[in-house]
Design goal:
With 239 residues, this protein is mainly alpha-helical. The chain has 2 domains: 10-83, no CATH class; 129-236, no CATH class. The protein is 54% helix and 6% strand. The protein is built from 12 helices and 5 strands. The strands form 2 sheets. Strands 1-3-2 form a 3-stranded antiparallel β-sheet.
């Protein structure tokens, strides 16, 4: 996709904001619920936002696009906060000297063996199906979904399906990643970004606030691949 950069001079930026505001006013006039309310101010705000966003670099556009739900919430909170702010500043009683503190530290060191025993005491064993959802082996997929073993093996070798190790040698496959007897497009891309299949499936199968609370795998099924990959790239690039 080619991104057109907005002009950077004040006059040209003002022109962008003005043109967008005019379009927004026209759109608001067609909305009967808003037709009787003052339209100039919200239109001007939208115009200023559009002009500001248009002047951002392409990489920032991609980040904003992957965080639409967060962006919408932040805009609403900003409008509410600015509207409630008073002109008077809040006086803070800040002491001239802050109290020095060393904190509690890391505590006593323990041996590797003691650490492992402590982790074993805290760890709670969970079945793979408890966190991964319904899974099936190669035999079950062939019997119930008509997916040939050779085809499944080819997909696994190409990294196009999530394969989870169950036990010491057997791999099972989350059923939710298949549609019409094939892996959903984009599964392999997320797996490569995550670096391993377990992390990829945990991310794919959990509701994601960046994607409006939807599970990424559900959006892949709806062919919204670019949204999911943008969110995955932002999530796993921080690790």
């Amino acid at each position: 996709m080619t991104i057109r950069r907005a002009p950077t001079s004040p006059r040209q930026g003002d022109s962008t904001a003005t043109r967008v505001a005019a379009k927004v006013i026209d759109a608001l006039r067609d909305d009967h619920a808003l037709a009787s309310t003052p339209m100039a101010f919200p239109a001007e705000v939208v115009g200023e936002v559009a002009a500001a966003i248009a002047d951002l670099p392409p990489e920032t556009w991609r980040v904003l696009g992957s965080r639409r739900a967060d962006l919408s919430r932040e805009i609403r909170q900003l409008m509410e906060r600015v509207g409630l702010e008073k002109s008077a500043l809040i006086a803070l009683d800040i002491p001239a000297i802050a109290e020095a503190s060393q904190g509690e530290g890391l505590g006593p060191l323990v041996s590797v063996e003691e650490g492992r025993r402590a982790l074993d005491d805290l760890a709670v064993p969970r079945r793979l199906e408890d966190w991964a959802g319904p899974v099936a082996g190669a035999s079950e997929l062939a019997r119930d979904f008509g997916i040939a073993r050779s085809t499944l093996h080819r997909w696994q070798q190409a990294g196009e399906v999530v394969a989870l190790l169950k036990g010491t040698r057997k791999h099972v496959f989350p059923i939710a990643q298949f549609i019409d007897g094939r892996p959903v497009g984009g599964i392999g891309d997320v797996t490569r970004l995550a670096g391993n299949h377990r992390a990829a499936w945990i991310w794919l199968s959990r509701p994601n606030p960046v994607l409006g609370g939807r599970k990424p795998v559900e959006l892949l099924i709806e062919d919204r691949r670019s949204e999911v990959l943008d969110a995955a790239e932002a999530a796993f690039s921080l690790q």
